[in-house]
Amino acid sequence: MNIRATITLLVFLGWGAASTWWYTCKIKGTCAQEEPETYAVITAPTTEAETEKASAPTTTTTPDTATSKPAVVETLKSVLILFSSGSVEQEKNKEIDDYLKSLAAQLKTSGKKITIVGHTDNTGDEKSNDRLGKQRAESVKSSLVTLGADPGNIQCISKGETQPAAPNDTDEGKRQNRRVEILFN
Fold it and tell me: Which of 106, 113, 121, 108 is nearest to 159 (CA)?
């Protein structure tokens, strides 16, 4: 092989490597992900018998919301708490209460800051949903402050119906969209 062919081959290989890196890291944003994100799904009991037998959190890489009704979904960077339709009250569940107690204690000792983002499904008008999302975020903040967290370290905002987690065309999709997301700053 002559020198011209060798240089052409090296330039082509370099261009291919750079293009692959650009697509993977800059466009798809998956360059730094070494492991799949892990979720802790805490299932909300739906009957009195299930409430008595509520199990501990399970860990899975793909939460199965079609067969279970998660009340708290924890990722590496955020936590989701789900709500009933039109409600600012979190779904009543021992796991939610235990999680909020643990989070409040952690915030109290560490001084870390969080942002609580309220979301809604698309039922109702946009202005009402924005207000409902804010009320949901404030409800979770109130719970955390009651448990000892510093209110100055907790910011509340609403995204209303603007950032659905699932399509709003099914009851389960709407349920997934009625949520509060806790972001760790």
Answer: 121
Which amino acid, one-letter code, is at 90?
Q
| pTM of structure | 0.59
For the stretch 16-26, pLDDT in tens is 888 777 777 66
Local structure of 60: helix, strand or coil: strand
Tokens of 99: 């999680």
Burial of 81 (0-12, 13-18, 19+ CB in 10 A): buried
* Alpha-carbon gap, residue 157 to 110, rounded angstroms: 22
Q: Which of these, 98, 82, 109, lies nearest to 177 by C-alpha position? A: 82
Q: 58 in helix, strand or coil?
A: strand
